[in-house]
Model the fold of this input.
Amino acid sequence: MKAFGRSGDEGIANQAFGLPRRFLLTGAETGGARSVWVEDVPAGEGPPRHVHHAEEELFYVISGRFRFLAGDDERELEQGGVMLVPRGTVHTFKNIGDTAGALFIEMTPGGFDAFLAIVEAEGLAPPDGMERIAELAASYKLEFVGPPLD
Done:
């Protein structure tokens, strides 16, 4: 792998699951070492509980107020807060602020960005697309295990 860089506004746009994100580094660009993106999360939004069996996930709160659940650890974090989720850990997050927030997300090893790219390219969304989403998720060692945070 050689040095690589891009400005934030040069990131690769993605809208999988209706959440705007910009891939700053993809798994393909880093030789599989990591995937990095910035995700804009509307107030009240967050994913269902899930497990990445192959990757660790690091969250850094750029803006907003979020509640994170990772295993038995539940906490609220604001700008500057960080949450590390080890692989194999049930986790989720929710923007609990009144306005949109933004997260810097890094997954190691890389490659999970490809899952999000496929979901967007195929126009998949719950509930109608869940069968195909679950099939793709399994191929990326991702498992959905419960509802989003209340």
